[in-house]
Amino acid sequence: SSMAVGTEDDKIAGVITDRDLAKRVIALGLSTEQPIRDVMTRNPLLIDPDDLVMKAASMMMQHNVRSLPVVKNEQVVGLLTTTHLVQEHRVQAIFLIEKIKYTNSLEALPALTAERQAIFEALVEGNVGSQIIGQVMSMIMDAYNRRIIQLVEAKMGEPPCEYAWVVAGSHARNEIHLLSDQDNAIILSDEVNDDERMYFQLMAMDVCKWLDACGYSLCSGKYMASVPKWCQPLSVWKEYYRKWTANPEYERLLNISVFLEVRSIYGAHELSEQLQAHLHQLLMDNRSFLPILTKEATTIHPPLGIFNNFVLEKNGEHTNTLNIKKFALNLIVDLARIYSLSTGGSATGTEERFRYAHEQGVLSEDSLKNVIGAYRFITRVRYAHQLDALKKGETPNNNISPDMFGSFERKHLKDAFRIVSELQEAVKLNYSNQ
């Protein structure tokens, strides 16, 4: 049903499908003697051999295509079609994403939340890798976001100018879990006027409300497109980044820590790309920013005492528990961010950032294996804790009692915390005085 069209040096030039031939040749009565280049689809969507089947399914449904050339190092190594997915990968999450895509009303979307939770439970119970769980849950959240935006647009009318809906935080990193709230923003075209901005303000309020109804809670820090500060033209966003990097006081450092990784999921993606290019240039020009970020990222340490015992919360409603997010996972995310920025990387995912740092020669092979192993194990502990809470009918959280750990978990958690501490020291040594 599909063929990839290559150049003389075996790079991809386009794709041609049976539907293309039917619509662009036969239906129009064109000659079959003309070159394929006249009717093929140029610049097709591509996928890497190591990408998840879930990603391929999501791309096909989002862009309404039936095939994806599989490309590695600019060479076509295969072709993936919808038939392959249906016949060989009956993944529950694929069907949920499809249900979301074809839901015809905003009111019907919250009813699918139970299926999302069931998928999370099945992935954790099936011992699926933590990085894959994060990616699958992120794809589902992407699908909710896009469909809600489309339905709100249909209700309000066509947008008055170009815009990009971007996500930040764990969503941008493709590391969604059951406690992930919504972190999002809108980048508007600089051509927008005041009346047109009101359209986007109202749209964002509606989108964020429906995301909340679908189980993605409103951000407690107010980092949402519904807040006027985070629904701005590209030029204003560029000025935000300039101020944040030039003088990163506490509030500005907090703002940029949220928006240091953003991912465009709907609209004019080039607006987000321009903003990211602007940020990278600012960071290259300001050598004092990275040491400040390093200081903030190494102030908090993993909860491990000098006698190799866990350091627990001492007061509040979570007394005698470990906050696995604040004192472990956030630290690893911060370290990955520093390595990425130091090497000019553009990846947003935590593991991707560490791998890129290794490729650039600033992180050893052993350190790479150790930190990714630690990150996956700690994430796995968090997922198991959330699953246990769900089964007990409780609200999941990030605070875990050490009494829940067996000797295996205790030993490996302590090993993971030590790895994080050692990497913090290495980052301090390498980036504190640049």
Structure description:
The protein has 434 residues and is α+β, with helices and mostly antiparallel strands. The protein has 16 helices and eleven strands. It has helices at residues 18-26, 53-63, 82-88, 92-101, 113-125, 130-156, 169-172, 194-213, 234-246, 250-259, 269-285, 289-297, 325-342, 350-359, 365-391, 407-431; strands spanning 2-6, 12-17, 41-42, 67-72, 75-81, 163-168, 184-188, 231-233, 262-267, 322-323, 399-400. The strands form four sheets. The protein has a four-stranded mixed β-sheet with strand order 8-7-6-9, with helices on both faces. Strands 1-2-3 form a three-stranded antiparallel β-sheet. Strands 4-5 form a two-stranded antiparallel sheet. A hairpin with a 2-residue loop joins strand 4 (67-72) and strand 5 (75-81). 36% of the residues are buried.
Keywords, please?
four-stranded mixed sheet; Four Helix Bundle (Hemerythrin (Met), subunit A); alpha+beta; 3 domains; Beta Polymerase, domain 2; three-stranded antiparallel sheet; globular; 11 strands; 434 residues; CBS-domain
| Poorly predicted regions | none
Number of strands: 11
Question: What's the CATH C level of the largest domain?
Answer: Alpha Beta
Question: Would you tell me the structural class of the helices and strands?
Answer: alpha+beta
**Order of secondary-structure elements:** EEHEHEEHHHHEHEHEHHEHHEHHHEH
Number of domains: 3
Average pLDDT taken over every residue: 89
Main sheet, how many strands, which sense, barrel? 4 strands, mixed
CATH architecture label of the largest domain: 2-Layer Sandwich
Distance between the amino and carboxyl termini? 55 Å
Proportion in helices: 40-55%
Walk across the major sheet and give the strand order.
8-7-6-9
Rg to the nearest angstrom?
Answer: 23 Å
Q: What fraction of the residues are assigned to beta strands by DSSP?
A: 5-15%
CATH topology type of the largest domain? Beta Polymerase, domain 2
